[in-house]
Amino acid sequence: MGRDTVIGLVGKPSSGKSTTLNSLTDANAKVGAFPFTTIDPNKATGYLEIDCACARFGKQNLCKPNYGYCRDGKRGVPIMLLDVAGLVPNAHLGRGLGNKFLGDLTEADCLIHIVDASGTTDAEGKATRGYDPINDIEWLQEEIFCWILGNLMDKWPLVVKRHIATKSTTLETLRAQLGGYSANKQLIARALDLVPNLPPLNEWDNEWIEKVVRSFMNVKFPTVLSLNKMDHPDADKNVLKIILKHPTLKCVLTSSITEVFLRKLAAQKYIKYDLGTEFVDTIDDLGPESGLKPLDDKLRNRIENIRDLVLYRFGSTGVVQLLQAAADLLELVPVYPVRNINSFAGGSGDEVFRDCMLIKKGTPVISVARKIMGDVTIAHIETVGGIKVAEDDVVDKGKNDILSFKLVPGGR
């Protein structure tokens, strides 16, 4: 059974991390029980918005997820979020909650780094003007690098000695050293493949070790930058600088405080708000039959400002797109296990697509079966139309993403 995907949220104080976390774990979205057996104090359930399979077959009115929600074919799939606290410069030296912060990171498969793009908070999160947020991006990357490098260099002479004595491969030796970062053999192999002309491990000097650590870091901690407070007057120039300086990093412009405010107004029935879009309607737009509450002038003006300065200008608050960007980096595909491949029901009732799992693109369907069913004997696997799927066939977006597993009677 594979472990659940974990997305780590990092950010200095006052960058908007807590606000972003609140919007991603929106209590209004929670339906039913949780799919995760343990939720530690610094973990939370987020909701990744996807196009649900029910819309493909016109069954939106029958879609009732066991976990998360589905609203008119837009599905919120639960995903584990890790709130990584104690983010300050020199964390790798044990400053602040440094050791805890870096220890917590090991569990993350991907990071969302909340950056205050307005430049109105300094490195410690204190109010200022004109601070360059590029510093925050670079020191976070450097903290992680120094931490992994320091751990490796502390015992490097012994590592090389054992490597030679046991005649191990480079992959075997590094797996023993880097496995503690929740990194499997495939991930470490991918990191090594990305370093061109890599000599044998016993010939590595400091420069080669640093190249390997950087490559491992990029594979282990792919990062989405949330350029927050995008509607601040100083944000534009900072966003441009960041994108030019870090063209390979995935950037999403966000205003998490706007998202939290809109969700609050929607919950209080002042507005109708389509998550992840620019569409906000009030009683003025939809009329009294909408059931929305009337607005006073102050609230009406505030909504107009949000439309002009955030929604119409940027297309959305960006918050919903954050988890989508992280899922894209991790190449996650929604997969729907069903009992009945013809009706898509999960059991005896009419309700469809009760379950949805996030699986890495390219995973063989037999691995998906093992993750869901455990170690049982499977007779065959079917997809839409009752078509049989080979065990080594893989899942992809819209391909082999609806599966039914037929067991050998009494087979375990």
From TrEMBL:
GO terms for cellular component: cytoplasm. The keyword Nucleotide-binding applies. Keywords: GTP-binding, Nucleotide-binding. Residues 5-274 form the OBG-type G domain. Pfam families: MMR_HSR1, YGR210-like_G4. One of its GO terms (molecular function) is GTP binding. The keyword GTP-binding applies. This is OBG-type G domain-containing protein.
